[in-house]
Amino acid sequence: MIYFDKVSKKYPNSVALQDITFSIESGEFVSIVGHSGAGKTTLLKMILAEDNPTSGKVFFDSQDVHALSKRALPKIRRRIGSVFQDVRLLPNKNAYENIAFLMEVAGRTDQEIASDVPHVLDLVGLGDKIWSFPHELSGGERQRIAIARAIINQPDLLIADEPTGNLDPINTAEIIEIFKKINSIGTTVILTTHNKKIVDNLGKRVLTLDHGVLSRDDKSGKYAI
Ligand code: ADP
Relative to the CA of 44, which ligand 1 atom is closest? Predict the structure, then answer.
């Protein structure tokens, strides 16, 4: 599904990625670990084509994402759901509206929206918070709404950039269980974290970045730095 071919990214004052090569198959659950500044977010940006590599290529299902036309790129991006540490819900919309909004943008009917939104909120364990506004929810609940929103249009790939960075251990464990559930129903998951416990407990593949270098690729890895 994803193939990085000798990808480097240089910024004026730093090298964020150095000659990175790896592939991720459809259905995998991959954690990307590394200290702050190791290049994790930059790597995710390369997949979403939010920034161009200095050299090398990134493929999504054999398509070079940085060579796509202006019309083709949104098609790829629609196949990717994203979750971030800072959640990014619309503050003046309730849980239902925050999720419905993305379905409207994707051209889905009111009927589809009315049936899918409660279903996805049940999946993240928040069926009873459907009419709550972000300020009425805890940090963990807000992140679960953001995950529901990221998967509402059934992406093939879910990207999560430090999704538990602001959460306590109990909320963190719950969020990871949700990612595992999403992965078990067929969605590829890529998660960045510097939380050693998450990765140890997952026992799934771990890519380790060290100053922009892919220093390890462990099949059923433990946090190695
Ligand atoms: P991580 O997500 O692992 O914390 P990042 O990918 O955010 O790491 O950053 C990797 C390196 O690239 C850091 O040295 C950071 O300062 C630098 N960097 C990231 N984004 C930019 C940018 N837009 N402009 C300049 N330097 C950047």
Answer: 6
CA 209 to chain centre: 17
User: How far is ligand 1, taken at its centre, from the CA of residue 52, in Å?
Assistant: 13
Q: What is the 3-state secondary structure (H, E, C) of the chain?
A: CEEEEEEEEEECCEEEEEEEEEEECCCCEEEEECCCCCCHHHHHHHHHCCCCCCEEEEEECCEEHHHCCCCHHHHHHCCEEEEECCCCCCCCCCHHHHHHHHHHHCCCCHHHHHHHHHHHHHHCCCHHHCCCCHHHCCHHHHHHHHHHHHHCCCCCEEEEECCCCCCCHHHHHHHHHHHHHHHHCCCEEEEEECCHHHHHHHCCEEEEEECCEEEEEECCCCCCC
Token pair belonging to 8: 């480097």
Q: Indicate whether 209 pLDDT > 70.
A: yes
Residue positions counted in the chain = 225
What pLDDT, in 10s, does the model give residues 112-160?
999 999 999 999 999 999 999 999 999 999 999 999 999 999 999 999 9
> Ligand 1 site: residues with CB under 6 angstroms?
11, 14, 16, 34, 36-42
Please give the radius of gyration of the chain, using alpha carbons only, rounded to the nearest integer: 17
Average pLDDT over residues 22-31: 97
Interval between CA 43 and ligand 1 midpoint (Å):
10
